[in-house]
Amino acid sequence: MRRQAVTLLWRAGIAAALVCAIGVLPWLSRTDPALTVLKARSADRDPTPEVLADVRAQLGLDAGPFRLLGDWLGGLWRGDAGRSWISGSEVTPAVLQALGASLLLMAVALAVAAATAALICARTLWLGAHRRLDGRAGGSGSAVLAALPEFLTASVLATVVGVQLGWLPALGWYGPQWTILPALALGLPAGAVLGRLLDDLLPGAFTEPWALAATARGLPGRAVTRQALRRCLPGLLPNTGLFVVGLTGGSVTVEQIFDIPGLGRTTLQAALAQDLPVLQAGTLALVLLAAAAAGLAHVLARLLIGPALRDGALPSLHRPTPPVRRFLPIAYGGLLVGVVALGLPRDPLALDTAERLAAPSPGHPFGTDALGRDILARVAHGALDTLLLAGAITAVTLLTGVALGLLPRLSGPLVDTVTALPPVLVALLVTAVAGSGTATPALAVAAVAWAPLAAHTTALLQQERAALHLTATRALGAGPWYLLRHELLPAVVPPVTRHALLRLPGVALALASLAFLGLGAQPPSPEWGLLLAENQPYAERAPWAVLAPAAVLALLGALAVTAAGGLPGGRRRGDRGRGSGEPAAPTPEQHSPAMELVRTG
Length: 601
Fold this sequence. Notes:
Elements: H1 2-23, H2 25-28, H3 33-41, H4 49-59, H5 65-76, H6 91-129, H7 141-147, H8 150-164, H9 180-206, H10 209-216, H11 221-249, H12 252-258, H13 263-273, H14 276-305, H15 308-311, H16 327-343, H17 375-405, H18 408-419, H19 423-434, H20 440-465, H21 468-475, H22 480-502, H23 504-516, H24 528-535, H25 544-565, H26 596-600
């Protein structure tokens, strides 16, 4: 009870600190909120000292940020989040309406993500049910889906399916059918990542003693498959909760393209206009949603695991070591290096207006953009910045995620709060504190990218600590450091490392999204996100201008997935020398809830 109270206070303190930081955002950025609000209200009005003084008097800015923050917090107890500085309307109804739109979009996107994840795992489930698993990772098709930029997918769906074919409405928010296209743009990449994570855990579940015993007893494969899913889902639920929040508040670009009045778009517009009451209320709604999603994921995980977590009788979930598959990673890596090598000798800034939007040719293998610049040259030169930056961020977030994931009491509330922040809002906060520059998008992405890895580490660590082999090792006199180095880290680090590699394209996409919204790299930089943003308006007339950087991003995703699939699975020291398909000797761990399947038939 005391732990829960401390955790609750820690969560409340982090949320309060975040809301307070947002409340003083204009003063942190050393900008005049009166001037920003005036521009948002009427861009043509002359900002004379008298006009600005009138705006300050209307908003009470002369009282200072802390007085305004105190008044806003005092109104929350009455359910009053204040009035918008821009429109003058009440904030609470507007934020609740935006939250409703985002929740509806999130629900449909989750259905799309679940269907996508099921398709990705279908092969592994079928092979596992028929005892034909060979430990190989799935194909790289999911990597292509995961590496598709949401804003690019949304633009293509809106242009082709919505406008050209007219099958579904492309703009607006007037009914359920308006949710399909944006839900596809959000759900396909999310489902690809979740499917890959689940597909990474399933082989280990199918080779556990209870599954081998159930098969030997002649139980149907579908029953074993259901229990394998139940065995793996607890390790996936924390990241599913993170996706729930990300699909609600982080879908800013999709909401912008499809003109959806969602919470992410509302929060972004309020941040750009420094409409603090709306920004604070929207952020608070996202933080509360993150806390609810994390709590629900925790409860569901305990229900799925059952008493094994409490009794320390959970089997240790280890992925079989896959056969060595060097061809695909080498092929994808060689192709990516070849593209970069061919484009580096070319000038990415050379203009040729006579060759505007020229189709691919021997002189321009990837075609040209709207200014006649060679796209191959821009893709190659942008690869140096994008890949190096994304790789560095991934390495830092992996170390941070594992380190904080080992301290769940400290990191749990922090993960929930960080996840509630869209990267765009984080970029604005980083810009306000550190100033604008080339490092701003990297700092913004790194500030939130560690959270899924920390959640994954905590979930795996919780299950590993409940394994009976850990209790036996501790009874033999092993200390905490020995258990951490020889038992816990070898079991947790490999799957989290594979997870980090799967998110490498996602880090590149986050940088691209910031560039798409004008918060990342600036022209004439050849950064991949900026290339997509610059050429997206010409996607219908010159699709190669968009497909080239998108294809390279997809190639990066395929390389990350195939390289991650070749990493060895974490195994206990007692498992050494055992083949990937050879069952372990029976141990007391077989007395887990999953063994009820064998006992009862």
